[in-house]
Design goal:
Largest sheet: 3 strands, parallel
Structural class: alpha/beta
Distance between the termini: 46 Å
Number of helices: 6
Strand content: 15-25%
Shape: globular
Length: 118
């Protein structure tokens, strides 16, 4: 990594103050990945976001754990201006993502079994 830090403002990326859809989350995810590919560190700024869902966060943040370690993300991604109310959502999404990607095959089998029967 180089020492370049890039600020990505969620409100500007999704053109609104409600971070609720997985489509918008995917857009944010792709912007973060673009910066990582360029070897930049990212400050993801949530200033002005008035509504946020776990669906959005799973797409924007959670899927980063599919290709990056926690250590890498802790070093190269900073979440800034997150409201106190939303910090709990981040903790839930990050813990679920870590668990899911650590045991992806087991999770998928359990889901298949639940849907289609054992």
């Amino acid at each position: 990594m180089n020492d370049s830090r890039i600020q990505l403002v969620v409100k500007e990326i999704i053109a609104g103050d409600a971070a609720v859809s997985t489509d918008d989350g995917d857009i944010v995810y792709r912007r973060i990945e673009e910066q990582f590919t360029l070897r930049n560190k990212v400050d993801l700024d949530f200033n002005g976001i008035t509504l946020m869902t776990t669906a959005f966060l799973n797409a924007a943040i959670g899927q980063l754990y599919s290709s990056h370690t926690s250590a890498y993300l802790n070093e190269n991604l900073a979440l800034v201006q997150v409201s106190a109310d939303d910090k709990g959502l981040f903790r839930i999404v990050i813990e679920r993502a870590k668990e899911y990607f650590a045991n992806k095959d087991s999770f998928n089998k359990s889901a298949d079994d639940a849907i289609h029967g054992s």
